[in-house]
């Protein structure tokens, strides 16, 4: 039963790390990446629709994103959504595709983005620690009900701490890589 709790905790922690990784991908660096547009939702015929479902997104150059809508009639709605997003990118279209020029980041903006990614990483760490806390509560409940001995509980807690440390370390590695990417001039 203890192994099941630990396996469940490990699976949930892995999902938290993946969610943190996805969130970090959406933070803009000086380089163009199709992931920058993952959070953009377009008001498409009255329904909020992710941009990825309405268009193909490519980064043919280091500082250029090209959005090719599947439906040419959606270009105005896509442009409006891009202008309203927090990306700070100005779209230009030629009637077929939308081009987004990704400008160089200023030093001040880089520092701001580093703070943003630190907050995202901290949210990921908190999520992992919350999972640990929940599993510890379940283990203590088992001990209180007499289904788990004190030695087994102690071993399970130590194993859970090792798993937690491993996943927090993965988040720290993601943070360090993203920080290097942002500060790279």
Q: Tell me the strand order in the biggest sheet.
A: 3-4-6-5
CATH topology of the largest domain: Topoisomerase I, Chain A, domain 4
Largest sheet: 4 strands, antiparallel
The arrangement of helices and strands along the chain is HEEHEEHEEHH
Structural class: alpha+beta
Q: Total strand count, please?
A: 6
**Amino- and carboxy-terminal Cα gap:** 51 Å
Strand content: 15-25%
CATH homologous superfamily annotation of the largest domain? Ribosome-recycling factor
How many independent structural domains? 2
Descriptive overview:
The protein has 185 residues and is of the alpha+beta class. The protein has two domains: 2-25 and 106-183, Orthogonal Bundle (Topoisomerase I, Chain A, domain 4), CATH 1.10.132; 34-101, 2-Layer Sandwich (Gyrase A, domain 2). The chain is 59% helix and 15% strand. It is built from five helices and six strands. The protein has helices at 2-25, 51-54, 75-84, 107-144, 150-183, and strands at residues 41-44, 47-50, 55-61, 64-69, 91-93, 98-101. The strands form two sheets. A four-stranded antiparallel sheet has the order 3-4-6-5. Strand 5 (91-93) and strand 6 form a beta hairpin. Helix 1 (2-25) runs parallel beside helix 5 (150-183) and helix 4 (107-144) runs antiparallel to helix 5 (150-183).
